[in-house]
Amino acid sequence: MNIIRKIVVGVNPKDAMTYVVGNSAGVGKVVLIEEDERAFLLHNLRRYNVYVEGESGSFIWKSIENIPCVVEYDCDFD
Q1: pTM for the full model?
Q2: Which 3 state secondary structure label does DSSP give 58?
Q3: CA 65 to CA 21: how far, in whole Å?
Q4: Disulfide engineering: 31 pairs with which of 27, 49, 53, 64, CB 3.0-4.6 Å?
């Protein structure tokens, strides 16, 4: 499994929205960004889910579907 560290959403990365694991999001913090493999296999839909953790636990905050984006994976070289 590839661990996504950051996703930049939009056609032009300079003007795009960026979500990074560990950054704040509203009253919570981004804890996970995952590619929704089921959506791709069943519907050929490229979807990324952004999860946040708040006082009531973690939940999907945003789903990004079929929008140009740049995905940065967490690379651990140790």
Answers
A1: 0.87
A2: strand
A3: 19
A4: 53
